[in-house]
Design a protein that fits this description.
297 residues; Rossmann fold; five-stranded parallel β-sheet; globular
Length: 297
């Protein structure tokens, strides 16, 4: 069975493509990239075509090199023919091919980690390949599952604000973020990752902060920064813990680590606070092993 997400790129951009693919694989995302997934001895052309035909989503790494590549053009044509969910990742300014010009892209030209997190948000909420080519209104018709601990109307307001920046997919993103965030600040910070423009992202967070009194369970709304109390825990350990937690909580993981580190005085206390965010006992056991290996490794 082929992977859910096929990565198309120019061989000149392989450093970015392989890093992106490996980071996604580490986070538990099912991706296919030729240099990692074509077995020795297999026909390259046939393997690539089969992977494109069988994937759920098609990711194209956009640059001047890929825009001029005939191989990439063939892969795009195959994906369009099969009505795949296409997600362009812009790594360098270029003239975007006409067939892709109307698609919203993820801008990775200045912030790799934000682009990676935004991609994970999008595919975590992405509809099936058949639904992805339906009119945008169909996406907004998806019902958001109510989350008990959110104040009435909060998720609706979050969706309205986010829609101004990302369109109808906002409802899907809010639904996913609401299931992983532990408070209002984490919810909005997670949603902000879906906004590619830094100025718009900052404006979104300011709007959210203005709607919050800052005294409730959500606290103040801001982008994640290392806390004063987290100095007793090395920043390197916090960064690695955030990377490990992504596989369990998604892009909000780094913010969760930052928030919990404000109360934790030792790495072990931090680990236990992170475990409390995981509902599955089996996942807790697996996660604790990974976290402890970071501290002892």
């Amino acid at each position: 069975m082929m992977a859910r997400y096929f990565i198309s790129y120019s061989r000149s951009d392989q450093a970015f493509a392989l890093r992106f693919a490996q980071d996604l694989k580490t986070a538990g995302v099912d991706v296919w990239v030729d240099q990692l997934d074509i077995p020795i001895g297999q026909n390259w052309d046939r393997s690539v075509e089969a992977a494109v035909r069988d994937c759920e989503g098609f990711v194209i790494i956009l640059s001047p090199r890929s825009a001029a590549s005939e191989h990439v053009a063939d892969e795009v044509a195959c994906a369009l023919e099969d009505h795949k969910h296409i997600i362009p990742i812009l790594i360098e300014k270029c003239t975007i091919p006409m067939r892709l010009a109307r698609l919203q892209f993820i801008d990775a030209t200045s912030d790799y980690h934000n682009a990676l997190a935004r991609f994970q948000l999008i595919i975590g909420a992405a509809p099936s390949s058949a639904a992805a080519i339906a009119p945008a209104a169909s996406a907004s018709a998806v019902q958001t599952k109510p989350v008990a601990h959110w104040a009435p109307g909060l998720l609706v307001r979050a969706e309205q604000r986010l829609t101004e920046h990302v369109g109808p997919i906002a409802r899907l993103l809010v639904s996913k973020a609401a299931g992983a965030a532990g408070n209002e600040a984490e919810l909005y910070a997670s949603l902000a990752l879906a906004i590619p423009d830094a100025a718009e992202r900052a404006n979104f967070l300011r709007q959210c902060a203005g709607a919050s009194d800052g005294n409730g369970p959500g606290g103040s709304v801001r982008e994640a920064t290392p806390s004063q109390s987290s100095r007793s825990i090395p920043q390197e350990l916090l960064d690695k813990a955030g990377e490990v937690l992504i596989a369990h909580l998604g892009p909000v993981a780094r913010l969760v680590v930052t928030n919990e580190s404000r109360e934790a005085k030792t790495p072990e206390e931090l680990f236990q606070r992170l475990l409390a965010r995981i509902p599955s006992e089996n996942e807790k056991v697996e996660l604790l092993k990974k976290l402890r290996s970071l501290h002892t490794g």
